[in-house]
Structure formats: C-alpha cells, structure tokens
Design goal:
This protein has 454 residues and is an alpha/beta fold. The chain has helices spanning 3-17, 33-46, 65-73, 83-92, 108-117, 126-136, 184-194, 212-233, 260-270, 287-290, 322-326, 438-444, and strands at 27-32, 53-58, 77-80, 99-101, 120-123, 150-155, 177-178, 200-202, 240-242, 280-285, 294-306, 309-314, 335-338, 361-366, 375-382, 390-394, 414-420, 427-433. It has two domains: 3-31 and 292-439, Lyase, Ornithine Decarboxylase, Chain A, domain 1 (Beta Barrel), CATH 2.40.37.10; 33-289, TIM Barrel. The modification N6-(pyridoxal phosphate)lysine is found at residue 60.
Length: 454
C-alpha cells in the first residue's frame, strides 16, 4: 500500500473516531511510521559501500521522543544541538557513541557532558576548541569505548541557496570557521597537528533551498581540506567526515524528489573519493527523512466569501506552521479539503447553486491566530468548503511538530503515529504527544503566581 493510500485511511479513521468533534483540540498531527521506515532504508541503500556509515536524524526536525525512538530502533544515530535535544536522544535510546553534538553556542557544561558521554562533537570555533582543551584534562575517556569523532565545523563559503535563513555556507554565516577567510587553513593545520584526538571534519552547507550541486561543492571543499591536512601530517589523522543533512524536500506534490540516490550521485560526481571506504561518513538528515510522512489535519470552523475569495477558517495556522505563515514564498504548503468523514472533497462537490459546481473556488486557508498573515495557503483552487469539513496540510512531518509558536496561547496539538494493516485497511495508532491542555498553558505562563506579585 502506498503512503498516499495509507494517509487516506488514517484521515478517515480519525474522522470516524470523532477526533475533530472535540472543541478543545480540533486538530491533530499524524506521522506515517512505514513512510519513515522506507526513507531510512532508502538512505541506507543509497549510501551502500565500503567503510563505516553513521546516519543520524537531526533531532530538531522532530523533537518527539517516540519518533526519535523509531530512528534508534532502526539503528540510526541522532544529531543534537541543545541540552534538551540531547536529553531526548538519550531517552529515545540512542547509544551516546551514535550521538553527534552540534550548536554554535555550546556552554562549558554542555561540552563537558558531551565529552563524558563520548558523543561526537563538531567544534564551532577556536574559542570552543580552547575550552575543550581545558575540559579534556579532567574528563577521562573510557578506553573500552571507541574514540569519538571530534573536529571542526567548516563553513566552505561556497554560497547560499534560495532561502537565506537556511543557508549556512554563505560568506558570513554564523556557523563554523570560514574556509576562505585569511589564516583559517593554517589555524586548522596547526590545531590538528597539535592534537592527536582531532580526527574529523564537519560541513552542513544548508537546508531547504539548497541545490544538490551547492551541497556537493561544500562537501568537496571539506574533502579536499581533509586530504590536504592528512598529506601534511603524513598520516590519515582525519578519517571521518560528517557531511551534514540538507537534502531539500518537494512540497509541491506527493512525489519524493530529489532522492537520496540522486544526492549521492551529485556528490560522487564531484567527490568520487568520498565513497571509496577511506573515510567513515556521518550524515545528519532531518527534513528529507520526515517531511512527507507527516500530515496536520484540522477542522474547518467557518467559511466566508470576502473580496471574491473563499476564506476557509481552520484551527491550523501559525501556531503549527510558523515558517509558512511568516515566509510563505519560502515555505509553501499543499492543503486538501475533506468531508467531515475524512473523504477527499472533489471540486464538483460544491453546493448546488453557489456557482462553483465542477470548478474550484479561489480560496485562502486561514488559521485561528489574530493576525491577517495567519494563512496556510493563499489563492489556491479548492472545492466549496463547509463548517465541519477537514483540511489536511501535507508534508508537515519535519519541523512543523517541533517548531511551535505560542502566540495567542494556542495549545500544541497532539501527535500520533500510524500504521495501516494492508489486509483490511485497519489503522493502528501510536500515541506520540498529548495535546497541550489549558492548565499546562497556564502553568508555563506564570499561572498561580498572580498573588505573589505584591
Ligand atoms: C548542523 C545541522 N545538521 C543537520 C541539519 C538538518 O537539516 P535538514 O533537515 O535540512 O536535513 C541542520 C538543520 O538546520 C543542521 O543545522
């Protein structure tokens, strides 16, 4: 059964269960577990070949312990960038040796913890290296455990993609050390020459909006740097390359493109030596592993016609689709309209006499937040909608569940995983996150403290 068919079964099952009849939470996020499994397998197959691979999931794409647990169970590792993400990764069951710690602002406490755990560590800058030098003097490394991968994050300065905010290889990006900046190559050579425990280089040129050629150019620059440092040191000190994540996702249709195979082919064309087994390779994909597996489903509360537009007011807006609401040109989303029982509404299902039979209506799909930019999509053709219909927001499995916006004190929605029995179409649910309650919102907003203010 294809993922589109599984999604249709899941929507109908949610509707049949009466999920959207609940006025407290008329929306939910769902994740297709089989689709995630399939993506993990595609990644592993695409990177098949000699040498060690450590495929990690970027926790920031899904800060949900059970979802991270799916990746741990599949044998992957986890890339984390904060103490919270690290705690989630450990709870999800990742062995510390399969955890990679990034972040441009690691505190001494965080660095000490990473060293004690034996996690891989991508050093952002020279000041951080000096902290690590000092911390290493009193953190014992258990010789029974494999030596962690530790090395610099390199900004190859090979250029930005179409979304500036997602580009980490621009000339002035805040991440890592700028490879083209004066003195960087010398600094790196001296750092590696003086520290036998530096054995890795890291590059992540950016996320959505990057072209494969640009990602490959960043990896090529770092591969050449590793070869150069090794040649100058006279031995293969750097034997690990962490090539980051960043494979873009197609948000325009159900097609998964580009694929992990295309990603590998683009890199291999530019850096044929990368896959010959001399380097252990780490990857840190997020969006490409999860986006297409996720759907947000919300009830339509009202439908209005304003200025020639059908305006569909739903319960999913900027609180779950923050980037889309604030930067819609960079983060467009696809929505589909469904009847209250979850079935796809065809264009011809308009009300007789409303002038829209057989055709779509120019529509905006809006959320519940109090600002007019709170839109999931603008000026798209949709069938005539009615209160009680459902709107499905597609490809929202990465970042949308982990990047909530607390404006208007709207609750974080619940999230469930699902699987579908191919024999009978029966949907099996797995609870991932409970919807936030008003009591929880009050508690995190200083509730109960009003009296202590005087
Ligand atoms: C260091 C690092 N690795 C991996 C990722 C994941 O990127 P993506 O979700 O585009 O694969 C990010 C995203 O910001 C990142 O900063």
């Amino acid at each position: 059964m294809e993922s589109v068919e599984r999604r249709a079964h899941a929507l109908e099952a949610l509707a049949a269960e009466g999920v959207f009849d609940n006025d407290d939470h008329p929306l939910i996020g769902v994740l297709d577990r089989q689709a995630v499994r399939d993506r993990v397998r595609e990644l592993e197959d695409a990177f098949d070949g000699p040498g060690r691979r450590l495929h990690t999931v970027a926790a920031k794409a899904a800060t949900l312990v059970p979802v991270l647990g799916w990746f741990a169970e599949a044998g992957m590792g986890c890339e984390v960038a904060s103490p919270g993400e690290l705690a989630m990764a450990l709870e999800a069951g990742f062995d510390p040796s399969r955890i990679v710690f990034d972040s441009p602002a690691k505190t001494r406490t965080e660095l000490r913890r990473a060293l004690e755990l034996g996690a891989d560590l991508n050093i952002d800058n020279v000041q951080e290296l000096q902290r690590i030098d000092r911390l290493r003097q009193d953190v014992d490394h258990d010789p029974a455990r494999p030596a962690p991968g530790i090395g610099f994050r390199i900004n190859p300065q090979t250029g930005a993609g179409s979304i500036e905010a997602m580009s980490t290889a621009s000339h002035t990006s805040k991440f890592g050390v700028g490879l083209a900046d004066p003195g960087t190559r010398r600094m790196l050579f001296e750092a590696y020459a003086a520290r036998p425990w530096l054995n890795q280089l890291h590059v992540h040129s950016g996320s959505q909006g990057m072209e494969l050629k640009q990602i490959a150019a960043g990896i090529a620059a770092v591969y050449e740097l590793a070869e150069e440092i090794n040649a100058r040191l006279g031995h293969r000190r750097i034997d690990r390359l962490d090539i980051g994540g960043g494979l873009p996702v197609n948000f325009a249709s159900d097609e998964t493109t580009p694929t992990f195979r295309e990603y590998r082919a683009a890199i291999e064309q530019m850096v044929p030596g990368l896959f010959d087994g001399r380097y252990s390779l780490t990857t840190e994909f997020g969006r490409s592993l999860l986006a297409k597996a996720g759907t947000i489903v919300a009830r339509v509360e009202y439908v209005k016609h304003i200025g020639g537009r059908q305006v569909v007011i739903t319960h999913a807006g900027a609180q779950v689709a923050t980037r889309t609401a604030f930067a819609p040109e960079s983060w467009p989303l696809r929505v589909s309209l469904h009847t209250p029982d979850g079935k796809l509404k065809a264009a011809g299902s308009a009300q007789e006499g409303d002038g829209s039979e057989g055709a779509g209506l120019r529509s905006d799909v809006a959320g519940p937040c109090c600002f007019s930019g709170d839109l999931l999509t603008e000026d798209v053709e949709l069938p005539a909608a009615e209160p009680g219909d459902l709107v499905a927001v597609h490809d929202t499995g990465a970042y949308y569940f982990s990047t909530p916006f607390a404006y208007n004190a709207l609750p974080r929605p619940g999230v469930r995983g699902y699987g579908v029995d191919p024999a009978d179409g029966g949907v099996r649910w797995e609870g991932i996150r409970r919807a936030q309650s008003v009591e929880e919102i009050l508690a995190e907003s200083g509730g109960g403290r009003a009296a202590s203010l005087d």
